[in-house]
Predict the 3D structure of the following.
Amino acid sequence: MNKNIDPYAALRFREFNIFLLVRFSMVFAWSMQFIVIEWQVYSLTKDPLSLGIIGLMEVIPAVSMALFAGHVVDQKEKRNLLVKCIFGFSIISFGLFVLSWPSIDTKFGTKTILYGIYALVFLGGFVRAFIGPTIFSLIALIVPKRIYPNAATWSSSTWQLGSVLGPALAGFSISIIGVHWSMCVIFGFSVLALITLFQIPKKPILNPKIGEPIFQSLREGLHFVFSNKAVFGALTLDMVAVLFGGAVALLPVFAQDILHVGSEGFGILRAAPAVGASITMLGSTRFPLHKNAGKKLLWAIFGFGICIIVFGLSTYFWLSVIALFISGSVDGISMIIRQTILQLKTPDNMRGRVASVNSMFVGSSNELGAFESGLTAKLMGTVTAVVFGGSMTLLTVGLTAFSSPTFRKLDLLKDIEEHEKEE
């Protein structure tokens, strides 16, 4: 393998830079929207379980449609499919903008507004079922295979940058311009993403089985995921860890009732994990994580669990921020390794289906984790729920390390060398 690593290899492709702008705009809008919704819902209800319901409303359609979405993505042209996804998100954002109109709750009632928010979040789950597999598949059509690891790192870094700035701006914008006009900003970024995307031309469909019966298509995709130990192991480990480490969903409770820091402090807390992850990801462009990837993934998730426990027990604002920052740093390692595994080991004609399974395992576990955190907070109390989640994460890592020696020995250098020889 070439020892002279080019940290900017993917950025030398114009279409990939356009893609990153689209992805940043969408992630920024989506993450900011989720934070504003959390703040508005908790302000209306003062019930931590209502925060869990937000995640549940999104995860139900996202999971139920995931496999079908993967089949559709593998059968359709990717650029136009992404256009439809972003257009759908824009409509939902505009609906939330209307529902957050000042004093609208006094006219229609708090319950009506709350149910309206849940309904739009539910519709957003359908959009998310398609957008993840579409983005994953589009990357492979923009850069050559030898650039996949670098492209995956930059794409994940852009995702994290949007996750940093979205929540941070959400906290400050709620304080300065209010929930209603914060929703307007979100709608504006979704429109920006839609306009920018048209600068990328349509791409060829690489699936040789166009028109394949859906059940046969889904069966092949599932068989690939469950038979590939590296892919299945990474997805399972991350799913369980994220499921029980979903303390971030309870941040409004910590900000308002435990740390007493208001909307500005809430924005800082919500952005801290993404700041840590962004720094890790940018560093990984120069110091790749391919060697001993299995061990690094296990240690990263173990560190994540420790940070969640520290955050749950902390009553000091800056200690909580540091714990969340470090949790984001190690989570960034996990994300890079997982995305690299998927990009390197997934055939072109199965990218949509594999990405849809990934969204079921990992992406949806964020929302299920939010529901789990909200439910356990209701039953055990907020602090106990967070500590319980972190402890379950540590237990998951220990069981995986003990039961899967093959995964511990996972190394991605050989896969990268093979792709370089092909080109």
